Amino acid sequence: MKPIIPIVVSAGLALASAACHAADTHPLQPNAPRTVTVSEADTPPVIRAGLLQSTLIVLPAEEKVANVFAGDTVDWVFDGGHVASRFISVKPKVANGSTDIHIVSDHGNEYTLQLHEISSEPDAHFDSKVFLAPSDKAAKDRLTQLPVFVPAAELDKAKQEAASAKAAQAAELKAEETKAEQYRSQYPGNLHFDYTWDQSKGKSLGLQQIWRDDKFTYLRGQFQETPALYELKDGKGSLINFDFNAGLYTVPKQLDNGYLAIGKQKVEFHRVGGAK
Question: How many domains would you assign to the chain?
Fold first, then answer.
């Protein structure tokens, strides 16, 4: 196996020398960027590529590359980058080579091109940048629609974001459940049954119990007709907001003094230690 090594190195030096000599005698020149119109029904347009030179193929602004297929992946280098974009770089590694390339966009459009290396041709100009444009109406219409394919990189990113969002939601739900459980365990200690009223009048009206927590005041009873609820301040009564359901009044504040009334029936209540 040892005699083979010098042969390979020598061949590599000879090839490099030949390439350098060709470049000196026939230097490649980049063309100005141009636009190529692609139709599925027509012959694929030819893209002029230069030996060891990069030609950038650019999809329409609305599209990104979803997938790329090429006939010769040995003598040609294809690079779409690590992030989904509208750019593909192609570079021939050998002279006079040709291959085809098929590009599928995220909108479902297909672009087929013929790549040809031109370093041995009299015209040494190669395409440095080529903008692709669809000519078929259906392909143009797809540009205005939402993508039908998601590039693998974006799909992985979306999965990671979804997983992170799900984990954050689960953590938030767990925190809320813990908070609710703590509140439920502590809630009985927050209930205060410190109201007084005329029990005879209350029974006549249907009032059974009055209590409060740290935010609300509650009145429960069995009423034939729903009494109006008033708050007493400075000896004057004023209607207040409350929710009533199945005999339970829920007042969104702590009441110190108030009364229930139906017609001429009335029962006052006062919180022990509350302001008069």
Answer: 2
| pLDDT of 83 higher than 80 | no
Torsion of CA 138, 141, 146, 152, to 10 degrees: 50
Range of the domain at 222: 195-271
Domain annotation covers residue 48? yes
Rounded Cα distance between 114 and 90, Å, is 12
Q: Is 103 exposed, middle or buried (0-12, 13-18, 19+ CB in 10 A)?
A: buried
Q: Give the C-alpha separation, 251 to 230, whole Å.
A: 11
Do 111 and 210 sit in the same domain of this protein? no
pLDDT at 123 over 70: yes
pTM of the model: 0.49
Instruction: Give a yes or no: residue 222 inside a domain.
Output: yes
Q: Are residues 33 and 132 in the same domain?
A: yes
pLDDT 10s digits, 53-72 = 999 999 999 999 988 999 99
